[in-house]
Amino acid sequence: MNYVELDKYSRKWIFTHASMPVAAADLEEIKPFTQARSSQIWSEHISKHSPDADHFEKGDWASNEKIWSEDTDWQTEWDSDDATLPNGVLEFIDWEDNTTVFFCYEKYNVIETKWGVFKRNWKNFLFFDDGPMLIGRKKKQVLWFNSNGTFKSGLRE
To answer: Is 128 helix (H, G, I), strand (E, B) or coil?
Structure first.
């Protein structure tokens, strides 16, 4: 089994919080991985050595400063009543809504969903903003969100 039932997911509340509830159809598409599968996804796509974004090492593609854009603000849009993703995200990523994406909080906490679901509910995903990365299956583009309210966009090697 690759997934944890959303009802048993430790961070389920970020998707069911009364102030920002997620539609039932979207909840069905938010699939937290088990710790073992999260670790495998993290190792294959993010880092074989580092357990989270604070500890990337030489040899991790994400540690290469040259692949990253300048910091772009996401906090202002998160604080607003507008649900639209920040412009910098939409300008950088042009994926189809049915593209499978992985929202990677850290090595043992990765969620699979669809790009369309993430776009509609990005604020929920960013309740925890301690360096998560968004990658698309078979896509080079990546977003790296920082707890200071900014993100970087880059191309994975």
So the answer is: coil
This prediction's pTM? 0.95
Cβ-proximal residues to 147 (8 Å cutoff; 6+ apart), any chain = 129, 130, 131
CB neighbour class for 99 (10 Å; exposed up to 12, middle 13-18, buried from 19): middle
110 C-beta neighbours (distance < 10 Å), count = 26
> On the CB side of 95, how many CA atoms lie within 13 Å of its CA?
22
DSSP category for residue 66: G
3-state secondary structure of 124: helix
Q: What is the pLDDT of residues 136-152, one digit of tens each?
A: 999 999 999 999 999 99
